[in-house]
């Protein structure tokens, strides 16, 4: 329909005047500008069409929202408008949206945008094909795949998304992917705050970078600071090392991670495991610190080695790891046990050192008890320092060295309080099939030995001194003793050998301290009290875009024109088909379970 300029101006002036007056009462949509306007009965009785001119677009407003387009159709009786071509919508000074097509209801304040939709706010830009906007709740929603771009944190894509304008919060669900130059994050739901870069993860989630991979089922990540906090089956993989625990903290910039409660650190290259209830891991330093029921496990095919101490440290490159146990350190395997103030294990060379720290002087009442001790098949060996050497290829014991104040003790097989004893300055022992079979006592050697015949009858008690002693052990018992540079010696009948002389100076039988099972490693520990982890908030299902308030508004919008289809009800999104399931908290292991695990078996 062609109209001349005067008729156009008169129509627009009259229409705008009537709308303006009426809007004071009803706050209906107001047409601010149009180049051409006319009524088109072919569209719908009463439908008004507005076109732009050469200089300006059609402009209309409603309750603080401004919208511009090349063409608009306004249905006055339903206060509903359709905007076509180069549509731009602006709310306040911060929210802008452009699209090819927009519908807007002045009664419900619901908008629907389609075609190259771009929503911009100060910290990010959202692009999608279809977008729904509820001005009453200040909620934008899409369900046809969308992408959010933020300079500092990268790009986020998802099948479904929401933007809460009042809270400045995005909520992404289904196939959520955040791509950053340093990492890629995948999750089932992500709540993201663009103002501070905080991201909350729900459901199975991974953060994969060049040097690390994080998995959790509930987590928080600060995309600005590159730090995170993770729970529910949380795990961090660093090169050949993985960290698991009830609660994990991660700092990507510093290559640092810490863990709390029920922790397992696995070294896949060296086939070893460290457990405890608090740990720190420095990737760049190849360092692990762990305490609170700390337990290191060297996993071996037939017989794993367990090391427990108040504090454990694992350092060194993957090809040369060293494990150090400090304070009340204990060692256990099926045929060997040890105890010392400090135990160090070099996994590359197979050297295990049992050390008595120098801070305990010989006058210290507890110094004797703190001396390193080693038990093997009924034999107890003590000294100031003990070195145990293993063959790293065969995983079998090779030899041991006891430095200074070496003392070898074994209980006599028959008598209740008889002990075979050998002491000297140093001791060197050799193993065959993990059993001690040869011992050399070097310098200032002394011995007390219970001599028995083939029927195990006691012949007498031998007491000797010599420069050195060589001992052969067969089937866990001393078979032969050779004295080198013997000074003196004799065999006494038991009745003639005073009980006061049946102990060599420095004798200390510590059999009650020997760990005879994995459980025994922890028997002297104080009660373990673990901190209570408050954790992240539980998962709450996303709200539906069409909730009860929207349904009521849409229903009310159609009451004024019951004979016509309710335009406010069209193009409403359907209910989501695949909500993220609510996660159940991971059961917390009892603190004593850590000592019952048998990874090496």
From TrEMBL:
<dbReference type="InterPro" id="IPR005653">
    <property type="entry name" value="OstA-like_N"/>
</dbReference>
<feature type="region of interest" description="Disordered">
    <location>
        <begin position="544"/>
        <end position="601"/>
    </location>
</feature>
<feature type="compositionally biased region" description="Basic and acidic residues">
    <location>
        <begin position="550"/>
        <end position="566"/>
    </location>
</feature>
<feature type="domain" description="Organic solvent tolerance-like N-terminal">
    <location>
        <begin position="26"/>
        <end position="188"/>
    </location>
</feature>
<dbReference type="Pfam" id="PF13100">
    <property type="entry name" value="OstA_2"/>
</dbReference>
<feature type="compositionally biased region" description="Basic and acidic residues">
    <location>
        <begin position="573"/>
        <end position="601"/>
    </location>
</feature>
<protein>
    <recommendedName>
        <fullName>Organic solvent tolerance-like N-terminal domain-containing protein</fullName>
    </recommendedName>
</protein>
């Amino acid at each position: 329909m062609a109209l001349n300029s005067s008729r156009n101006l008169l129509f627009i002036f009259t229409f705008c005047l009537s709308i303006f007056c009426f809007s004071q009462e009803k706050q209906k949509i107001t047409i601010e500008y149009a180049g051409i306007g006319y009524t088109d009965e072919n569209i719908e009785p009463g439908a008004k069409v507005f076109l732009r001119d050469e200089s300006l677009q059609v402009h209309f407003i409603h309750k603080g929202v401004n919208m511009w387009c090349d063409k608009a159709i306004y249905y006055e009786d339903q206060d509903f408008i359709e905007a076509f071509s180069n549509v731009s919508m602006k709310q306040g000074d911060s929210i802008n949206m452009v699209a090819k097509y927009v519908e807007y209801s002045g009664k419900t304040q619901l908008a629907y945008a389609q075609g190259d939709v771009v929503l911009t706010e100060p910290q990010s830009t959202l692009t999608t094909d279809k977008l729904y906007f509820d001005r009453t709740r200040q909620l934008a929603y899409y369900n046809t795949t969308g992408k959010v771009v933020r300079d500092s944190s990268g790009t986020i894509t998802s099948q479904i998304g929401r933007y809460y304008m009042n809270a400045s919060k995005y909520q992404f669900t289904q196939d959520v992917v955040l791509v950053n130059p340093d990492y890629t994050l995948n999750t089932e739901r992500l709540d993201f705050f663009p103002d501070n870069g905080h991201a909350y993860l729900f459901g199975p989630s991974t953060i994969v970078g060049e040097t690390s991979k994080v998995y959790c089922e509930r987590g928080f990540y600060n995309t600005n600071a590159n730090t995170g906090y993770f729970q529910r089956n949380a795990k961090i993989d660093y090169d050949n090392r993985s960290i698991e625990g009830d609660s994990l903290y991660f700092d990507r910039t510093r290559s640092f991670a810490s863990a709390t409660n029920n922790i397992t650190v696995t070294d896949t290259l060296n086939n070893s495991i460290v457990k405890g209830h608090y740990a720190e891991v420095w990737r760049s330093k190849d360092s692990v610190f762990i305490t609170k029921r700390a337990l290191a496990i060297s996993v071996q095919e037939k017989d794993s080695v367990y090391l427990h101490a108040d504090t454990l440290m694992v350092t060194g490159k993957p090809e040369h790891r060293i494990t150090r146990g400090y304070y009340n350190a204990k060692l256990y395997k099926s045929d060997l046990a040890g105890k010392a103030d400090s135990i160090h294990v070099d996994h590359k060379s197979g050297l295990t050192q049992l050390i008595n720290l120098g801070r305990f002087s010989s006058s210290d009442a507890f110094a004797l008890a703190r001396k390193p001790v080693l038990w093997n098949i009924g034999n107890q060996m003590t000294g100031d320092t003990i070195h145990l050497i293993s063959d790293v290829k065969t995983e079998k014991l090779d030899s041991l060295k006891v430095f200074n104040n070496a003392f070898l003790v074994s209980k006599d097989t028959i008598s209740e309080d008889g002990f075979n004893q050998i002491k000297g300055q140093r001791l060197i022992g050799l193993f065959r099939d993990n059993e001690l079979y040869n011992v050399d006592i070097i310098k200032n050697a002394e011995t007390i030995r219970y001599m028995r015949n083939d029927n195990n009858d006691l012949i007498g008690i031998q007491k000797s001194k010599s420069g050195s002693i060589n001992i052969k052990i067969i089937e866990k018992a001393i078979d032969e003793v050779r004295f080198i540079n013997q000074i003196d010696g004799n065999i006494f009948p038991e009745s003639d050998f005073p009980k006061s002389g049946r102990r060599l100076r420095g004798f200390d039988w510590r059999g009650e301290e020997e760990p005879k099972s994995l459980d025994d490693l922890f028997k002297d520990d104080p009660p373990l009290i673990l901190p209570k982890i408050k954790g992240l908030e539980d998962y709450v299902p996303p709200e539906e875009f069409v909730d009860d308030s929207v349904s009521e508004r849409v229903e009310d919008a159609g009451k004024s024109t019951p004979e016509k289809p309710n335009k406010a009800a069209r193009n409403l999104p359907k209910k989501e088909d695949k909500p993220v399931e609510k996660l159940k908290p991971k059961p917390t292991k009892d603190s004593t379970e850590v000592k019952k695990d048998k990874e090496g078996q």
